[in-house]
Amino acid sequence: MLLVAICVLSCNKKSDVKAAVVSNKDTLNQEVLDEEYESEPEEVALKDLKFPITGKNAEAFVLEPCEIKMRAEGFLNDDNLKDIVIVLQNANNNSDSRATLVLLQEESGGYKLQELSWEAVSPEYFEDGRAFYDVGDISINDDKTLHISLSGMGPVGSRETVYKYLNNKLVLTNISTFHSGAGSDVSSEYDLVSGNVDHEVTNTLHDDWPSEHQIEKFNLKQEILFANDNPDTILEKLPQPEW
Question: Can you give the pTM of this predicted structure?
């Protein structure tokens, strides 16, 4: 009887150990499966962000995953407080839309988000990896105008836009472009306030590089606003040079 009891106890212990091993294996397998099927974090687009209305400095408006690509300081409106303009880019996706924020300084020393544009500065790259306007710079001049200069490779050329506060709205007042082609270069100066354009076409096939000016008039039905309008789309509707 004693031997039988010892055998029974021994079998029960082996069963318990085997069950524990199986249980541990199942738990381990479940953890591995959970890791394998864990979803990647969802990519955040800048247009999904909600920027704060006020902040103590420019960095207060730089939300994840933003980084400051361009920055300028100067006087934009009629007070004597220095304002800031920043261009934000997605640090994880250089083909994402870029946000341009106009931050007006307040009497308290902080800043107010006065203007936000998704159109003023185009993405650095197309989705297929081709560079668009890959070099850029912004500045605020002494005449209280905001200048945005963009340059691209090849036929993209360069473009400078000038904005100024008119009746408390940041309005596009001038566009300058330059393109170089086979045998000629063209620089165009569009005055969107007066409705005049001057295309200077230079013949680069001759040693003396002769040039001619093509001057035209045009009419705009409404003001071109920093917050709403894409300068490249506006250019498509304006008189083009013959070259």
Answer: 0.81
